[in-house]
Amino acid sequence: AVAAAWIVAGGDPWIALVLAFAAGVVSGIVTADLSLRFGILHILASILTMIALFSINIRIMGRPNIALLGETTILTDFANLAVPMYQIRPLLMLVICMACMAMLTYFLLTEAGLALRATGNNARMVRSVGSNSNMYIYIGLGLSNGLVALAGCLFAQTSGFADVTSGVGTIVVGLAAVILGETLFNSRTIWIAIVATVLGSIIYRIVIAFALSFGIFGLKASDLNLITALLVTGALLAPTLRRKLIDKFSK
Predict the structure, then answer these.
(1) By C-alpha distance, which of 235, 218, 122, 231 is closest to 183?
(2) Over 70: is that where the pLDDT of 26 sits?
(3) Do residues 66 and 166 make contact, with C-beta atoms less than 8 angstroms apart?
(4) How many alpha carbons lie under 13 Å from residue 30 in its C-beta half-sphere?
(5) Is pLDDT of 221 > 80?
(6) Residues 223-242 pLDDT 10s
(7) Considering 78, 161, 185, 204, which has the largest number of Cβ atoms within 10 A of its Cβ?
(8) Do the beta carbons of residue 219 and residue 242 sit within 8 Å?
């Protein structure tokens, strides 16, 4: 919403990426504040922020959706190249994605990143050694929501529109991507875990497209939520089933 409103107002599309990321960081900080300062259950705090942002996004755009067709986007700078746009779009997204992955990996390997990871595993332990776990929760939620908003900005610019309902159900897609990635590429190495998450999201989309395109088991577009639920359930059960198989054949 922030990126679309900025671009329509004549703003630079690359600056829109920064503004969208900043807006996401603020949203994450609000969620953390509701949970830490006011003692609201963290899941409920995130839901409350999400509900509020639905109306805030409409306020920012001035209407439920904004068309970006004909506006200057990050793809416009590459329009004059002798390469089809259907090739430029995924290549540009790949470069941006790899840059984000590299910066995130670098951060998580620093002392602050290690403290952030430790807070996620055991916040009580972090407090016991004199570190401020709340600060790292703010950082974690701010960073994660910033990346989500950045992804939304890229989606709006490459799709040619921003709609207030575009994010509905995305949390399930994200969950499926993480679970699939961790299941298929199980590793304790940070950079492999991050790559696995990206690959998990790609695999998820491929499976969904394959199931709907070829009509496997008579599936239709209206069965998208059912396919997603089954896929996430299968991914959740996969580690347990794999562990049982390993135990069975190792005896």
Answers:
(1) 235
(2) yes
(3) no
(4) 16
(5) no
(6) 777 887 887 788 778 777 77
(7) 204
(8) no
Rounded to 10 deg, the angle between the 170-184 and 224-250 helix axes is: 20
Q: How many CA atoms lie within 13 A of 243 on its CB side?
A: 7
What SS3 state is found at 115? helix
Cα dihedral 7, 12, 14, 18 sign: negative
User: Which residue's entry shows tokens 């807006």?
Assistant: 23
The residue behind tokens 């347990």 is: 240
Q: Is 130 exposed, middle or buried (0-12, 13-18, 19+ CB in 10 A)?
A: exposed
Is residue 215's pLDDT more than 70?
Answer: no
DSSP 107: H
Q: Tell whether pTM > 0.70.
A: yes
Helix, coil or strand: residue 131: coil
Distance from C-alpha of 189 to C-alpha of 109, rounded to nearest angstrom: 10
The string of pLDDT tens digits covering residues 132-177 is: 899 999 999 999 999 999 999 999 999 999 999 988 778 877 887 8
Token pair, residue 55, equals 């109306």
Q: How far is CA 230 from CA 58, 100, 162, 227, in A?
A: 33, 30, 29, 5
* Segment holding 24, helix H or strand E: helix 13-36
pLDDT digits (tens, 9 = 90+) for 171-200: 877 887 888 888 778 777 889 989 998 988
CA distance to 25, 83, 137, 199, per residue, from 18 (Å): 11, 27, 22, 25
